[in-house]
Specification:
It is built from 5 helices and no strands. The protein is mainly α.
Length: 102
């Protein structure tokens, strides 16, 4: 058998195999459960650190705790951020409050 004939038969077998696999996938897809998916829940906050910082600068207050509390309320941020003293929210509030005092 020549290389040309072997290559031709190889292509014929590969296309037949691919067609069989494609048909099997189509048949399988007919029985897939297509029920409605539950709605995706939105994240608690979509505000980034930069957006929070900009909001704090626009609504500046020299009291960092009041500034942080107002930012959480206005931007719909998680309340747990106020309880965590190491959260970046407090760093931003302190930086904005100090820039007002200076």
């Amino acid at each position: 058998m020549s290389a040309k004939t072997e290559s031709k038969w190889s292509q014929i077998l590969a296309s037949a195999s691919n067609a069989r696999i494609d048909n099997a996938r189509v048949a399988e897809s007919l029985f897939i459960d297509r029920s409605a998916r539950p709605a995706a829940s939105l994240p608690a906050s979509i505000a980034t650190r930069k957006q929070v910082r900009n909001w704090m600068r626009r609504n500046a207050d020299d009291n960092e705790s009041l500034l942080a509390e107002n930012a959480v309320a206005a931007l719909n941020l998680p309340q747990s951020w106020l309880d965590d003293s190491t959260h970046w929210l407090w760093d931003e509030a302190l930086a904005v409050a100090e820039s007002i005092e200076a």
